[in-house]
Amino acid sequence: MTDRPLWTPSPERVAAASITRFAGGPFDYTALHRISVDDMGMFWSKVWDHAEVLGDKGRINFAAGHDMASVRFFPDAHLNVAQNLLRGGGPAAVIAIDESGGRRQLSWDALRAEVGALAAWLGDRGVGAGDRVVAWMPNVPETLVTMLAAAALGAVFSSTSPDFGVDGVIDRFGQIEPKVLVATTGYRYGGKAFDCLERLGDIQARLPTLRGTLLVGANRPAPATTPWAEALAFGDGCVPRFERMPFDHPWYVLFSSGTTGKPKCIVHRAGGVLLKHLEEHQLQCDVGPDDRFLYFTTPGWMMWNWLASVLASQATVVLFDGSPFHPGPDALWDLTDAEGVTLFGTSAKYIDSMAKAGRRPMATHRLDTVRTIVSTGSPLSPESFVYVYDAVKTDVHLASISGGTDLCGCFVGSDPTGPVWAGEIQRPALGMAVGVAADDGRLLGPGEKGELVCTAPFPSLPLGFWGDDDGSRYRAAYFDKRPGMWSHGDFASWTEHGGIVIHGRSDATLNPGGVRIGTAELYRQVEQMPEVLEALAFARDVGDDVEVVLLVRLDEGITLDDDLEKAIRTRIRTGCSPRHVPALIVPVDDLPRTRSGKLAELAVADAVNGRTVRSTEGLADSATLWTAVDRVRATTY
Known about the structure:
Layout: H1 11-16, H2 18-23, H3 29-38, H4 40-50, E1 55-56, E2 62-63, E3 72-73, E4 78-79, H5 81-85, E5 94-98, E6 103-106, H6 108-124, E7 132-136, H7 141-153, E8 156-160, H8 166-176, E9 180-184, E10 186-189, E11 192-195, H9 197-205, E12 212-216, E13 226-227, H10 228-234, E14 245-246, E15 250-255, E16 265-269, H11 270-284, E17 292-295, H12 302-308, E18 316-321, H13 331-339, E19 343-347, H14 348-356, H15 361-364, E20 372-376, H16 382-392, E21 397-400, E22 402-404, E23 409-413, E24 427-428, E25 434-437, E26 450-454, E27 464-465, H17 472-478, E28 486-494, E29 500-505, H18 519-526, E30 532-542, E31 545-554, H19 562-575, E32 584-587, H20 601-608, H21 622-634
Parallel strand pairs: 5-18, 7-8, 7-9, 9-12, 12-13, 17-18, 17-19, 19-20, 20-21, 31-32
Antiparallel strand pairs: 1-4, 2-3, 4-14, 5-6, 10-11, 15-16, 16-27, 22-23, 23-24, 25-26, 26-28, 28-29, 30-31
Helix pairs in contact: 3-4, 6-7, 6-10, 8-9, 14-16, 20-21
């Protein structure tokens, strides 16, 4: 798209970056990365020291195992993650804004006080190390306080957002048998109020292990619940006691999307996730105590956990609850200016939506405090990179990052000391032995497409799946495909600049005529057309081959006539290849997505091809799936 980088940091910014201090002065990223994977124990020990982790690091940095899944970092270390997240001082630990403009602020002292009070209440309910505390909550301070109070006790925390239905909640929380549920009375989204109390009763009835339900919201009583204020009053004045646990003690259970079956319960180790997030925040994103860190997310997406960890860098967490387009399309930019946000995090889809709507925040907002914009959730197209620098801010570090719920972190990410090229994730993350591999495990070079893999262990490797006692499901998910490597499921390629491009999910890759096609490259072409707001591609079985079917959501007032179909096919043929051209183009009112906003390509393919769609609770709106399927089946050539 361009032979020059879109942004290069100033020498002053490079010199002041945390990663430069970590390296001991001017450095070469490629060389630093090589050291970080060649001597993993030394590298992660240095991250521990650089981040000043509170705890006993122990004598051993790395203990090898018989395979990647059995290695251990810091096997004799002890720490408490809540103690590390609550170490800051000053007037603002948490700033919370809702879509109606309501604002709350918690100082570090106030946050510690609420955590201490809630931990006392949880302890009175019998919650201790290893017990599960779950939250069915929006992105509000009470969710954060619940996680921290549970972690202070060594309990395991898990969360999901209140837009999940009863079955979706039970599919997740029911597997891990929680002792305490924290739930909301309701929430608002897009100016509409949604009540949760009726669903709450059903959820309680189907979680027989509960010893208490804590209710957050207006003063609306519900059977067998304790109001939030009453719980805090019970523990008023209690100082948090931080029980130090082994490095591998479980902190979180995160869930896979659940669109291909009952969600996997991925168990994450406390020390590993904390250390991984400290590295990503401080070294890859240059976050420090003066930062205000906003990430648009819900507690049902791993980016909420990533956001929460920024407290360990003594930065201020900025929570936003509601629709990013309410009361208007500039809601998040208004918040950014009002609160002095320094790191603005969002999804690639949000950036694309802003571009499609013709919004130019740099013309309407100051954005003078913003130093970094982080994007994830799906591949960020080259055009969206250009849009950010053309319409949002010219002097900003645009950090496209990619990883997943599976590791609660990133495989590839940003370098605040290096240039940003259109369409490229800048670098493999430090400490991550990332490669692109063929099906036979052969590592590929620049321009060759294959699956994203990791060839060496890292601290946030999951402990395993809940209930998978022999580890067979865990190993099958990541290690059996290419022994000795973690296979992540992303279709990717290296660039000549040492960066990486994600072309879509490898399990959603299209294979017409045996040619592998990443869906992201197809979307890039179609979504540049002003008539097309967004698209979803999948493969429909035809005999021994497949054909590409393209769902398109068109702009208001646009219909899919012969001329537009021809234009779409021409655009794809010239921008990609004749193999990419869809056999069928189908207009739909909306596209099926997971609750974290990702296109549900596999669910559509399964439904259209007559395969069992094993769960629809992971979808934001299952009706969009069946409407799309009906449209495809009703459309003729």
